[in-house]
Amino acid sequence: MNDMHADDSAGSPRRIKSIQTASAILEAIQYLETPTFTDLCNEVDISKGTVHTYLETLENEGFITKSGKEYRLGVRLVTMGESVRNQTDIYRAGQDEVEKLAEKTGEWVHLTVECQGQEVTLYESSGDRAIAMDYHLRMRESPQYLYHTAAGKAMLACFDRDRVREIVDQQGFVQRTEKTITDLETLFDELDRIQAQGYAVNDEEEVRGMRSVGTAITGTDATVCGAISVTAPTSRLSGDYFESEIPELVMEAANIIEVNLETAGVQKPR
Amino acid sequence: MNDMHADDSAGSPRRIKSIQTASAILEAIQYLETPTFTDLCNEVDISKGTVHTYLETLENEGFITKSGKEYRLGVRLVTMGESVRNQTDIYRAGQDEVEKLAEKTGEWVHLTVECQGQEVTLYESSGDRAIAMDYHLRMRESPQYLYHTAAGKAMLACFDRDRVREIVDQQGFVQRTEKTITDLETLFDELDRIQAQGYAVNDEEEVRGMRSVGTAITGTDATVCGAISVTAPTSRLSGDYFESEIPELVMEAANIIEVNLETAGVQKPR
DNA sequence: ATCGGAGTTTGTCATATACAAACCTATATG
DNA sequence: CATATAGGTTTGTATATGACAAACTCCGAT
């Protein structure tokens, strides 16, 4: 047996290598947007012939489409994604509240969940004052670091600190603005504060000029199901409105979602 | 070499078997909603051990999640699906028009594309009179047969008849109501009529009590990019409104989307 | 006409995969 | 309380499968 089992997993868990490869290719396509065959070969470091076979298979299965020379993710994923959303209790329990909150505040509202140590947006809604930003596209299109956002930090605050350490160790700190949290010490302090006050704020830590207020949505057994947040420009989100009114609204919404989850949700969250 | 190359593909195109298997498992999970390990084993006819390894891998890659004993599709798919949508020109070009049409008519409006001979919903919007129906969930969550819907038939009408025959041969006719088209003859007649009048109707062919009006959205070179449709109960969708007003509105919307596609769309549709 | 880059096909060997069977681990059953 | 049984996981192993390299085709540029 080969001794270069560089697999992170000590010992047993067998994996299907081809799926990992396929996953990497899909990720590359998503990342490169509309790559050509050669783009992909450069990105993934697998022999041309093999990449070809993978693309052929993935296209045949509907995971990708080729238009002309360009590959892109296939619409089968839209269907699957939609299906996931509708099966996710927190989406069903929270959609209405997100819309209401967006209407009340007039700003962007996000409903997110944690997945593999990152934050995934399940649903978003914008009020009439919400500004159009590519930012929101990015939010929806790719997972974010939990410590970058209000909702993310709110979820982290509910986690066991060891788990937080683990997540951060694995991902490292990526600095997005000069206010981004970039060390464990500061993060832990922040999480303590969040835990104490019941909600988290994000003060230009991810995007300059933008603030958010978020709070976790928890299940009966105190497990984190997700989080909800309001995002707006600093000009509009400041003073008492930022420090008390909005947090109040956000926590109220989270609370209602929690109740919805408990009453309707026969099965476990997520 | 083994001579039982039962592969439908004559001769060459090599495929990665593991991806096909993984795809089948994902499909089974989507279909069964929240299957347990054994449910899946029964569904897919692969040895227990192997299924285990696949699930392990798929979970590790974020394609599925295990909550308790239940497997379900993972939120990574939400992100990917969203990414696909936003890269799809017709979605960007058509979203606004769909919303406007929903507002004008007060009913359900769908923006769909063809994928592997089936119809996939890219976006939908409901007006204030639109009835809540599980039907719409199904529309969004899984591909539909093209000959079942107004939008689908509108797209079929633009295809080469050989292609239509091919699609139908492969999928067969599934009867949903007593009005569903169930033979090629009738379908071809219908497609001719659609081609002549510029739009398609669906008169309780998919769901009893529901009618729709749809039309194709085509690119510069007459290629089909997708379709748009309005759906409402027969009670509201009848007479002149059904036969002329709504078709007019639908075709107008399609037209605007086509213009958007041409002006904004630097790259090819889909 | 010729070249070169991009993409596809094929032969081949190492190895990843799928099976079977053994092995755990909870939950039901006598 | 012991035992059975179903649900789930791990392991050894033969063989089908994937990955590479190199040959090949196609198309646009020079």
UniProtKB/TrEMBL annotation, chains A, B:
Pfam families cross-referenced by the UniProt entry: HTH_IclR, IclR_C
GO molecular function, one term: DNA binding
Species whose genome carries this gene: Natrinema pallidum DSM 3751
CDD domains from the UniProt entry: HTH_ARSR
Keyword annotations: DNA-binding, Transcription, Transcription regulation
Stretches assigned to the HTH iclR-type domain: 16-75
Record-level GO BP terms: negative regulation of DNA-templated transcription
Ribosomal protein keyword on record: no
Domain IclR-ED span(s) in chain numbering: 76-263
InterPro entries per record: ArsR-like_HTH, GAF-like_dom_sf, HTH_MetabolicPath_Reg, Tscrpt_reg_IclR_C, Tscrpt_reg_IclR_N, WH-like_DNA-bd_sf, WH_DNA-bd_sf
Signal sequence interval, chain numbering: none
Name under which the protein is recorded: Transcriptional regulator IclR
